[in-house]
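Every protein is a chain of amino acids, and every chain bends into a shape of its own. Below is the pair of lines this work produces for a single protein:
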Amino acid sequence: MADPTTVDALSLGDHVCWTFDDHEWHLEALARFVRAGLAQDQKVLYLTDTFLPAAFLAAVEAYGVDADDARRSGRLVVSTADESYLALGAFDPELALRGWTTAVEEAKRQGYAGLRVAADMGWTVRPIPGIDRLAWYEAQANRIFSQGDALALCCYDRRLFTARELERVGMAHPGTAQAGAGSHEEWRPLLRMRRTPTGLSLRGEADMTNRDALAAVLRHLLDDVPAGNGPVVVDVSGLTFADLGAARALASAVEASGGRMRLEGVGPFLVDLLAFLDQPGEEAPTADGRVA
């Protein structure tokens, strides 16, 4: 599982698929996550499907978190999947997305620096109507979190999901903390997407592991960014790597915009990929997403 210290690298705007297979490490990671949020004057929300709320609050107290005081003051809210995602008896992804938008706006209105969310995702293995749209929901959620006012730690128990299922939901997150992450070297989300006054900033690496997250944000960027006097700008100067699929997503978004979107800060490696896409009869990328 991912090392609990990986959550220390998170900041507002991040949306991470965090995998675990040990409840003690899971609890330690959650305690670190909650403590950091409270210290940074963020509203903290934990949607549990692993621990009973009262048991969780008592457990994180042992890790040095003043959970009882935070709960009473409203700075920490602990709820269950049945009280949140499944309050209506089924999973409605559009309703859940609207709920996150409302929760972020409420936290800002209450004077918090942002909203910090940890969500246990074990409930998604139940035979629930609408659960087939989970990956779509996770990808669309990036449109909310990339605004930089909230961050989300989606906790997936590796013992409940197949490798293919984890791979699919992982693609809907800009970053995934897999087994062993943070154990031997510093970890951070692979890709960071942040909305800017004129568009979007991309930093890190864009590849097959976060393909759906990037595609969802790019596909709706013209709708999500307030109209201005110029084109929407996608700043890619912070990208250190992009595979052919990411380059294709960027090129397609610009082409589909009809001149209303442009790329800025295109590095040499991305120039080469975009030039390759202009060639007739382009070849498929290699297994690691690079051009052969």
